[in-house]
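User: Hi! I'm working on a homework problem where we have to compare a predicted structure to a textbook description. Could you give me the structure for the chain below?
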Amino acid sequence: MAIIIGSLTTTGIDGTISAQWGVQAQINRLWQLGDWDPYKTVVTKVETISLTTYAGSVGYVNLAPASSCANSTATIDVSIVPATCGASIQGLTGSFYLTNYSYSKGDAIGIGQESWSGQRWPGGGSGGINTEYTDAPTYVLQGPSEGSSSGDVADTGIEFNAGAAQIEGTQGSVSAGFPGIGQADTTIYGIVSRIGGGTLKEDGKIGQGNASIPHQPLYIG
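Assistant: Happy to help. Predicted structure tokens:
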């Protein structure tokens, strides 16, 4: 295990509060009759990142669903360089396709934060007997993004598609006793056309925003 020193670790994005990253292997073993050893092992590598930043530090990202065979532009550029004690560990650098975004300012006198999650399929690899690695996708297509926004801050980091229907929901809560203060909010649900740029500081106001951005790797021989 390696110990990572946060004050010396960089991500390439000012205002980053925390970072998580990893490389996962999706394994498909091709079993065969008469043998406990697989005929082949096929591995697809997936790299993931997740960042929490102060609101507004990344800026805006437009979400444009695919209209042709072209890579999605809903990406975030990071350069995670961990500073470690003991064993060294590799970070991740480059563009990642965004999969989820959220904005949160739950305290009326608090600071807004944004969370960004992304992934990519690098392709290739080495190691293992009778093991083959999947190539990088030819294209990564973006689909329509669903999201929600609630609260009264100036910007929850969610901009809805003006040409699509938006649905409203409400929720409220209050309890007895002192001070016995509750709150009620309206939540808007719809197709999201832009994320990011949430309000950092606005005393007396709160807000939440969320968006899910679907991506599909496409392989063309």
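For your comparison, note the following. The two ends are 41 Å apart (CA to CA). The first strand starts at residue 2 and ends at 4. Good luck with the assignment!
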